[in-house]
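Lab meeting, action items carried over

1. Structure of the two-component assembly. Owner: GW. Status: complete.
Input record:
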Amino acid sequence: MTTDRSRYLGRWIGVSTVAALGLTACGGGSEGENGAEEQAFSFTYAAANNLESPWEALAEAYMDENPDVEITLNSQPQDSYGESLRTQLQGGNASDVMQTVPGAGQTRGVVSLAEAGFLAPLDDSAGDLLPEGNHEQYTFEDEYYGVAPGLALNGLVTNQTTAEELGLETFPETFEDLIAACGETAEGGNSLLVLAGGTPQNSGVTALMAASTAVYAEDPEWNEKRAAGEVTFADSEGWQQALENVVAMIDAQCFQPGAEGAGFDVLTNSLVQGEAMAMFGPGGAAPELEQANEDLEFVLNAFPPAEGGEPSLQVAANYLVSLNAEAEDNQAANDFIAWLQEDRALEIYAEVSDALPADLENYDFEGSSYEPVQDLLLEGDYYAPFANDEWPNPAVYEELGAGIQGLLTGQSTPEQVLTAMDDAWGE
Amino acid sequence: MTRAEIRRRRDPVSSDPVAEVQVPNLANQTGTAENDAASLPADPVGERAPGAASRQGPRGTRTRFGRWWWAMPAVLLVFSIHYVATAFGGFYAFTDWTGIGSFEWIGVQNFTEIFADAEMLLALGNTLFLAFGSVLVANVMGLALALGLNRGLKTRYWLRVLFFMPVVLSPLATAYVWRYIFDFDGPLNAFLTAVGLGDFARAWVADPTFAIWVVLLVIAWQTTGIPMVIFMAGLAGVPQEMEEAAAIDGASTLQRLWFVVLPSLRPAIAISTILGIVNGLRIFDPILAITGGGPAGVTENLATVVYKESFALGNFGYGAALALVLTLIIIFFAVVQQRLTQERKD
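Predicted assembly:
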């Protein structure tokens, strides 16, 4: 009898619990419909290290200013971010707001994603803060698909302290001076430059630096001509010169021994320990390296052009924020993207990410790591976007990076590398 | 009283007239106590004598249906997750899909591009080289270790654990350790320099000649434990008396190994090589961690190229075609090995 009663009671408890849970779920839904859900959206972005993420800082600042808004942050690993983002978009479970990059040269490229119909077009004001020559990498069919809260500058991140100790008070101003300095430094048992030849990303940046002076400084429209089929990499004197310059640097022992197999860890270790003086990389790396060794001072220098040539800088908004097409009507997400172009957001992004602010005119260069390139930045005529952003697919840059490793090991010649890039470009 | 009679008394089901007919019949056929016991319905599903099930009526039908039904969830899961997904992947191999958006049917264009591309042929060659090379090295080393640690040594149990440990450890983690060892600034070059062989120091993982051998070495190190265990299991089945008899007949150690031990290990060798080749053909982690497919692509195999094309470069259709080629190669070698093993059994 007791057992029967217990079973009866158990059934009622079970049924009541299920019913209560069901009612609670319904109740939650109706609360959301009263406003909470309309003020909420999700935001996905890539994170490469444990340092404070600028995206997280921006989201938190926005929520502080707008207490009714709730942003769900989805951090993803940097190295597989593009693949994850594509999978989520294809599967229909991507976040409402997402970090993207300009152009179509990477898997997370805003143009490729917009072309596939995954992104919502933004207001024309999205292009207000972009530097000249960059706008095509944010647009598809004349509509903007991303806003940039800051600019990145690729250059030679230089350990100024070690350079001065080794007698290199000023960075070489011409390529010929650079080659001469490489020889002198190598004789002293050090290397002027450190290269992660085992990672296509770093070796590719090296070649792009060389190309920024040999190709894009003289012909800023070169990528457009390549897209139109008017020129090729293999037939371009500028590109041939750029890769010949890389070979010249290899022959002059500009890079550290074993550069062909080195990874990213070698870059930071060599610079922080004073074994090398400079690396090719983003300007935001300079303050990060100073954090690793506070006794050292790091600055950013431009890649020196050949005698009589013109210097060139690669300045572009390396990261964008885009809106998922499925969240086009989410007002909170739209408002957040609009806020990212306001002064407060620009300041936060520049401070946390160590990037150049979008508003260069009002930036205080004195004492910053960007001081050596202040004139070039402000003149503006030397702006060259990251060349690979304008390329049609990621395979072209992959071929360039692998090709530089081939130059280091003697497997490839500049002609072979450029031909492989043409093949990867397609028609 | 026979065991059949005892069971009939204990099991009310056995009072079923069908069962009562069945057991005495079998007992009468064999006429011995042992065979009588063997014919007991200990396993009412699978061990009945021929013809017994058909006479069981509804009970037998229920049992057979139950067995089939129980397997269905697993069959459906394997079919839907594995085979349907593979079929979809196979479909994309004939398209130009980039991983997002729309795609077009392009027939066998991806396949013609694969076989016209020298880099893909190099990757195919590397795939076969690493699979067969690692099988050869791992099996020879595994056999040597199994023979050495089979009996005799007091510390053999500890040594078995020691040599099997690389199989248990994460392949990716150990590959990074090996990469550190072979780095230009790593311990191997430091050792070479210390003993006066500094001229041989090099960036091993980025050397066009040596990089593929470094990968092979690491894979062999990671996988040797598996053939070792298989061979030790096989050696347990080799009668010690046979070896002793051969020794008394004057056979040397090598002769005993060649004429007594190895013939007994043939099934173990077949299993070990099947597993080794199938696993060797799809090696991925060590290459990605040690060389990343470099320098300039000389250590890429089909698995790394599939990953790179599909996910890093956004050529999903092309990557799917490569994956299909890799699958066909694996199936081919698996079938060949299966046939060889089957013939040996026959």
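2. GW to write a short summary for the group page. Key points so far: Chain A touches chain B through 37 residues (CB under 8 Å). Chain A has two domains: 38-151+317-358, 152-315+367-425.
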